[in-house]
Amino acid sequence: MKIATYNINGVNGRLPVLLRWLEEAKPDVVCLQELKAPQEKFPEKALLDAGYNAIWHGQKSWNGVAILGRGVELQEVRNTLPGDDEDLHSRYIEAIVDNVLIGCLYLPNGNPAPGPKFDYKLRWFERLKAHAAYLLSEEVPVILAGDYNVIPTEIDVYKPSSWLDNALFFPESREKFKELVDQGWVDALRKLYPEERIYTFWDYFRNAYGRNAGLRIDHFLLSPQISGRLVSAGVDSHVRGWEKTSDHAPTWIELQNF
After folding, report:
1. Catalytic residue check, 147
2. In the chain, fewer beta carbons within 10 Å around the N or the C end?
3. Per the residue annotation, which of 6, 106, 148, 209 is the catalytic one?
4. Out of 28, 92, 147, 209, which one is annotated catalytic?
């Protein structure tokens, strides 16, 4: 099974890019973030025509998450992260796919920081940690995939000194991510490539992609019940070079079938 995560940065504006990549890569499951589309504007028909069914939780102008499936049933479990009934941001959706629980998440950016947006990021992180701990307690195969908006370590950024004032690289953000992983999750890309510089995001400014001045902020965390089935992982970084593309590139893992 090939599973991908992709911050599409506007699912309708980037639909040609998404469809081109789906045809090329043929992932079985895709977690999308930052749809930037209300529920009724999600391009369901275009994706069905491409062979993908979908569940999604949209939001006008901002946020929005979806899970796509090719030849697999998507059994939606929830479309909000537990812990705050007043949080209206569309940032989490969860489904059972072939007996694997997949959570697709778009963690808050947190900038400008410090400030209210960073405080919200940390609160959201705490809710994610609580839910992740619950999922681990169920002792089932779980994948938490998405845009975590966290640069975990210095090897995950082209020039660490340039990001010291950014919420993605604040010590508090990195510590929250470490606390999450330390619950017992496996960072899929780092399991296979512990020392390599791997990026999933390149800014639109200052020729970041051309200079390979990137960040690794899109992550797969695997529960112990599934981490042993990880056989490969990578980033389709060439997609970042396509015309009118997202500033993220699709990131993927492959698992042995159950």
Report:
1. yes
2. C
3. 106
4. 147
Answer for the pair 56, 66: CB distance below 8 angstroms, yes or no. yes
Q: Is 70 exceeded by the pLDDT of residue 258?
A: no
Q: Is the pLDDT score of 183 beyond 80?
A: yes
Smallest CA-to-CA distance from 64 within 99, 85, 84, 34 is with 34
| DSSP secondary structure letters along 129-155 | HHHHHHHHHTTS-EEEEEE-----SGG
CA distances from 138 to 39, 82, 98, 226 (A): 31, 16, 17, 13
Q: What is the per-residue pLDDT across 224-236, written as a single tens digit (0 to 9) for each?
A: 999 999 999 999 9
Q: What is the pLDDT of residue 257?
A: 81
- Beta-sheet strands, E only, within the chain: 2-7, 29-33, 53-57, 65-69, 75-78, 92-97, 100-106, 142-147, 186-187, 201-202, 214-215, 218-222, 230-235, 251-255
Is the overall model pTM greater than 0.90, yes or no? yes
- Contact predicate 202/217, CB 8 Å: no
Is 119 one of the annotated active-site residues of the chain?
no
The Cα 238–Cα 210 span in angstroms is 11
